[in-house]
Write a structure and sequence with these properties.
The protein is of the alpha/beta class and 313 residues long. Helices cover 33% and strands 23% of the residues. The strands form two sheets. A nine-stranded mixed β-sheet has the order 5-4-1-8-9-10-11-12-13, sandwiched between helices. The longest helix has 16 residues. It binds adenosine-5'-triphosphate and magnesium ion. The site of adenosine-5'-triphosphate has 22 residues, from helix 7 and helix 8.
Length: 313
């Protein structure tokens, strides 16, 4: 049985400018801005929320089934997914579009200038939850607006419990949209900032949101996470990290852990700790799909971080 992971696939192109933007952007000339940054250092990473979450769930030995739309340039990404044993049956190629992609230029002050091209992601509504079989639970993660709305409704119609994960798609929705998603979802997972936006837009406090779902999970970066369930709040500590190199994708790694726990009927304390360790392992590596581990090392790190045995993996 699989977890149906609806969301984006994207290429992330990261370029490092060996200088400071402020030396090249002149405040009195911004009305005729025309700058070219020479960027000898460049990486191209596989990203996108659905793919990242699927990658992480697979690392744990779970059974992810990603669903989304990609473009004519998807071939190298498809082979990467296939190498990792992730099925692409519900990933549809939109022939006249590019796969979603972000072009990120960073400078030596850690400032970033990003251009995001949604491309095929905006056709996400062309794939349907009802087309997948053998699905026990799902997640609606950041994707095209129409796709997210339709996938949530399709999960409800199919009687499949799902997690609502608005992430960077938060600006696409208003209070009515969010209240509807929360009513439809069985679980909601957001980071600290997103939890604030969600409260502002819905007019619901955390405890009100939590009362509409089985669990509301709020991640707090290096500070750990909180799981609001059954009228209580379970504090999940952060796991030990060897180095903090790149926080991007920790949220997706954490969600991969959550889905693993839910698929296997684990309690929230264990599920949250597996998720936290996934985030910690991810933060040590650049990119969102460059980390790896054996299940033995995972159990060892779980023991080192939380002083308990992980027998469920
Ligand atoms: N520096 C860190 N040390 C230990 N654990 C971390 C660290 N950063 C992240 N994590 C783990 O990963 C989880 C998710 O991270 P975070 O709250 O930063 O997600 P996010 O803001 O959605 O990230 P992104 O959207 O960039 O992927 C945290 O709750 C924590 O368990
Ligand atoms: Mg996030």
């Amino acid at each position: 049985m699989s977890a149906l992971i609806c969301g984006s696939f994207a290429f992330d192109t990261i370029m490092v400018f060996q200088d400071k933007f402020k030396n090249h952007i002149l405040p009195d000339k911004v009305h005729i801005l025309n700058v070219a940054f020479h960027v000898p250092e460049m990486r191209r990473e596989f990203g996108g929320c659905a793919a990242n979450i699927a990658f992480n769930l697979k690392l744990l030995g779970g059974d992810p089934l990603p669903m989304g739309t990609v473009g004519k340039d998807f071939a190298p990404y498809a082979s990467w997914m296939e190498q990792h044993g992730i099925p692409l049956d519900h990933v549809k190629v939109i022939e006249d579009a590019y796969t979603a992609q972000a072009f990120i230029t960073t400078d030596q002050d850690d400032n970033q200038i990003t251009a995001f091209h949604p491309g095929a992601m905006d056709f996400a509504h062309q794939v349907k939850v009802g087309d997948a079989s053998g699905v026990t639970l799902g997640i609606v993660s950041p994707d095209g607006r129409q796709g997210m709305i339709e996938h949530a409704a399709q999960f409800v119609e199919a009687g499949i419990p799902f997690m609502f994960d608005p992430g960077q798609a938060m600006p696409l929705f208003d209070g009515d949209d969010f209240r509807r998603f929360i009513d439809q979802a069985t679980w909601v997972c957001v980071n600290d900032y997103e939890s604030q936006v969600l409260q502002d837009r819905t007019g619901w406090a955390l405890k009100d949101i939590a009362s509409h779902v089985e669990a509301l999970i709020v991640t707090l970066g290096g500070e750990g996470s909180r799981i609001y369930t059954n009228g209580t709040c379970i504090e999940i500590p952060g796991a030990r990290v060897n180095a903090v190199n790149d926080p991007t994708g920790c949220g997706d790694a954490y969600r991969g852990g959550l889905l693993y726990g839910l698929m296997n009927g684990l309690d929230w304390e264990t599920t949250g700790r597996i998720a936290a360790l996934m985030g910690a392992i991810k933060v040590e590596r650049h990119g969102t799909q460059n980390h790896a581990f054996t299940l033995d090392t995972f159990r060892q790190r779980y023991r080192d971080s939380f002083g308990a045995e992980l027998t469920a993996l």
